[in-house]
Amino acid sequence: MPGLISARWHPAGFLEGQARLGSGRRGEILASFLQSDVQSDLETARMLLAETAAAERLVALALEEARAMEEEAPAAPPPRLPGESAAAG
């Protein structure tokens, strides 16, 4: 996820994945995976970053949509007590 990690060629000749500041454990895990499992293949690293960024955008969009739906939903009426009629409300 571009917001969590970055990738670059190290001067020594290997692909280096780095967690970005504030990315926490997720950034560390992704950077570690990128550095170890996608080593020497910059195109695969770029594809991984692009795919995870797309997934991150979809999740953000879904959360935004859920919040909007929640705001639009009418408030539920208070529950009735046993024996209480609808007109008493």
Q: How do the SSEs run, as a string of H and E? A: EEHH
The outline comes out as rod-shaped
Query: How many distinct helices?
Result: 2
- As for the number of domains, it is 1
Low-confidence stretches: none
Radius of gyration: 24 Å
Helical residue percent band: 40-55%
Q: Overall pLDDT, averaged?
A: 77
Structural category is mainly alpha
Main β-sheet description: 2 strands, antiparallel
Strand content: 5-15%
How are strands sequenced across the largest beta sheet?
A: 1-2
- Ends distance: 51 Å
Total beta strand runs: 2
What does this structure look like?
With 89 residues, this protein is mostly helical. The protein has one domain. It contains two helices and two strands, in the order ββαα. A two-stranded antiparallel sheet has the order 1-2. Strand 1 and strand 2 form a beta hairpin. It is rod-shaped. The model has no long low-confidence stretch (mean pLDDT 77).
Give the gist of this structure.
It is built from two helices and two strands. Helix content is 51%, strand content 11%.
SSE map:
Blueprint: E1 5-9, E2 15-19, H1 24-37, H2 42-72
Antiparallel strand pairs: 1-2
What key phrases describe this protein's structure?
89 residues, mainly alpha, 2 helices, 51% helix, 11% strand
